[in-house]
Design goal:
four-stranded mixed sheet, single chain
C-alpha cells in the first residue's frame, strides 16, 4: 500500500457520518504534586493543582472520530449531575452532537477521576483512581427510546460503532438490535467490548485485545500459532466478517473471511507514554476508513499508525489526519 492510497482514503474522512453507541464517561485528570507523607497515616500528601476534563469510553471514541474529520452522532446515557453537565460541555466544545444522549435522573454519570502526581520538572504519573458509576442495565423505557432513535438515525449514517464498557447501556436486548438495524440498512458495524465477545454476532468487524480473546475462549495465547487458532475460532463463533486482535507492542492480527491471517507489527518507534484510549483510537480510525470504502487491510493499517501516535500522548488522546500522514511518511 502506497502513501497515495492512504492520502486518498484520508481525504474522504470529512464526508462520513458515524453513529457511536455505548457507555459515556467523564474522565477527569486531577493534576498535582506529592509533597510528603501524611502525619495522620502512611499515605502521600497530594497538593491539588488543576483538573483537565476529557470525554471517555464511547465519548472518547466519538472524540476520535470527530478529530479525524468525520461527523459523529453519540448515543448513550448520562445522569442529572455535575458529571453530566461537564461531559456535555466537553462534547459541545468539540462540536460533537449530543442529541442522541438520554438522561436518567436515577443513575450517576460515569465519572473517572484519575489522580496524577508530577510537576513542571517531573512527568505526571497515575497515583490512584476514583470511580463514580453505575453498572446496572439502563431501564426498559430508556432502552426503547434508544431503539427508536437508532431506527430513525442509522439509515442516514455510513457506519455504526458499538462499544461496551460494562456500564449498562449495551443491554442484552439493545446489542443485537443495534447490529440488526445496522446490517439491515447495509451499514458497516464495528464493535469493541469489555464484556462477552460472543454476544457480538454478525458484526462487520470487532476489535478485542488479546487478553479479552484469552478470557472469552478460556485459552492462553503466547505464540503466533496460538493467536491464529484463537482468531479463527472467534471469527467462526461470531460469524463476523472480520476480527482485529490488538496486541499492544506486538501489533495487530487481522482475520478476514477468505484470506490468511495478517500480522501488522506496531509502528511506534518512540517511548510509550500512555496506552489509555489507544483501543478507542483504533476503533474510530478503522471505522471511518472503512466508511470511505477502504479495504479492511487498508483501514487496519491506518488504525495501526493512529495507535502508534496515540500511545505517545498522555491520557485518552485523539489523532489527526495530518499526524497519521506524517507517521506514514516517517516510517516509509
Amino acid at each position: 500500500m502506497t502513501k497515495e492510497i492512504y492520502e486518498e482514503i484520508i481525504s474522504q474522512f470529512g464526508g462520513k457520518k458515524i453513529l457511536a453507541i455505548g457507555d459515556l464517561y467523564l474522565d477527569e485528570y486531577m493534576l498535582g504534586e506529592v509533597v510528603g507523607i501524611s502525619e495522620e497515616a502512611p499515605i502521600p500528601v497530594f497538593v491539588y493543582g488543576e483538573s483537565i476534563f476529557t470525554p471517555g469510553a464511547m465519548a472518547n471514541v466519538a472524540n476520535n472520530v470527530k478529530a479525524l474529520g468525520a461527523e459523529v452522532i453519540l448515543v448513550g446515557v448520562i445522569g442529572s449531575d455535575y458529571g453530566a453537565e461537564q461531559l456535555t460541555q466537553e462534547l459541545k466544545n468539540r462540536n460533537i452532537s449530543t442529541h442522541g444522549i438520554f438522561e436518567d435522573k436515577e443513575r450517576p454519570t460515569t465519572h473517572k477521576i484519575k489522580v496524577m502526581a508530577g510537576s513542571s520538572q517531573r512527568a505526571y504519573q497515575h497515583v490512584y483512581r476514583i470511580d463514580k458509576e453505575s453498572r446496572q442495565d439502563i431501564s426498559r423505557e430508556l432502552e426503547q427510546q434508544i431503539m427508536a432513535f437508532l431506527d430513525e438515525t442509522i439509515p442516514e449514517m455510513d457506519a455504526v460503532i458499538i462499544s461496551d464498557y460494562r456500564n449498562g447501556v449495551i443491554t442484552p436486548e439493545l446489542l443485537p438490535y443495534a447490529i440488526k438495524i445496522g446490517r439491515k440498512h447495509g451499514k458497516i458495524v464495528t464493535a469493541d467490548s469489555r464484556g462477552n465477545l460472543l454476544d457480538y454476532k454478525n458484526v462487520t468487524i470487532i476489535t478485542p485485545n488479546v487478553t479479552e480473546v484469552e478470557s472469552t475462549l478460556n485459552a492462553e495465547i503466547k505464540t503466533d500459532d496460538a493467536i491464529i487458532v484463537a482468531g479463527k475460532a472467534l471469527q467462526e463463533r461470531l460469524n463476523a466478517d472480520n476480527i482485529l486482535i490488538t496486541c499492544g507492542k506486538d501489533g495487530m492480527w487481522l482475520f478476514e473471511r477468505e484470506s490468511s491471517p495478517i500480522h501488522m507489527p506496531a509502528v511506534t518507534r518512540e517511548e510509550v507514554a500512555d496506552v489509555t484510549g489507544a483501543g478507542d483510537t483504533v476503533l474510530a480510525t478503522l471505522t471511518v476508513a472503512m466508511a470511505t470504502g477502504a479495504t479492511t487491510r487498508e483501514a487496519t493499517a491506518l488504525s495501526n499508525y493512529a495507535a502508534g501516535i496515540s500511545v505517545r500522548k498522555l491520557g485518552a488522546a485523539t489523532v489527526s489526519p495530518d499526524e497519521i500522514l506524517s507517521a506514514i511518511e516517517q516510517t516509509g
